[in-house]
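Action item from last meeting closed. Structure (219 res):
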């Protein structure tokens, strides 16, 4: 089974090159001004040119207003919107229609009961991104480098398409793949040397760890 891999929070040509060299299927740009990974829409549009035909560009927003989303869509020309705030199913449907783009809805999880929150989005969101709940005091809804208990995904309907996210890194990706067997994975702070600073060597190390874990499972 193919495994989609999204490297999120890209801000530099070097990080983009490392993500593409490793074989990223998705590259994410953060449009949440409080984030250390924030990038201006025009700069994201410049960076994403390197990914054309190689990886899908994802615009990550948090309860963004229409005018900002219009600007992001115009300048980035994303392949998908990732909604990482408290957007309702109605808002997801509205944005899909307004922009003619698929939507990935992020949902924070910590226990099996949280999976019930995805039901109203089924048939509306094109994909889910399961992330950990932000730690107390964090101003960021994502990119906190915190993992949740992947075993809760065992109770998930097999038809649900999702990315596993939250606190992944080269050291734990083998366990994550073994326990959750996700169709896609997403990483941000696990390939950073400091908040918002992607490290090409850590990106390469992550891809190596993914390949090793997959080879182990195939053996
Ligand atoms: O990364 C951010 O700064 C961010 C800010 C606001 C909303 C979402 C954000 N990130 C979204 C992502 O898709 C991250 O890759 C995801 O939360 C995983 O992050 P990490 O735990 O650091 O790998």
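Sequence:
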């Amino acid at each position: 089974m193919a495994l989609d891999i999204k490297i999120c929070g890209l801000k530099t040509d070097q990080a983009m090159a490392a993500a593409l060299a490793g074989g990223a299927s998705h590259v994410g740009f953060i449009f949440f001004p409080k984030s250390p990974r924030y990038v201006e829409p025009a700069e994201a549009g410049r960076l994403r040119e390197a990914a054309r035909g190689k990886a899908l560009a994802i615009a990550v927003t948090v309860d963004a207003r229409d005018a900002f989303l219009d600007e992001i869509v115009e300048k980035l020309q994303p392949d998908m919107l990732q909604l990482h705030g408290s957007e309702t199913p109605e808002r997801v449907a509205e944005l899909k229609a307004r922009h003619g783009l698929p939507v990935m809805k992020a949902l924070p999880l910590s226990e099996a009961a949280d999976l019930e929150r995805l039901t109203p989005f089924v048939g509306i969101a094109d994909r889910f991104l399961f992330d950990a709940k932000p730690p107390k005091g964090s101003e960021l809804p994502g990119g906190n480098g915190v993992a949740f208990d992947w075993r809760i995904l065992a109770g998930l309907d097999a038809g649900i398409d999702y990315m596993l996210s939250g606190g992944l890194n080269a050291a734990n990706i083998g366990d994550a793949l073994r326990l959750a067997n996700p169709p896609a994975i997403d990483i941000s702070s696990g390939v950073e040397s400091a908040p918002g600073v992607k490290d090409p060597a850590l990106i390469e190390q992550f891809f190596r760890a993914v390949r090793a874990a997959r080879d182990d499972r195939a053996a």
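Note appended to the action item: The chain has a mean pLDDT of 96.
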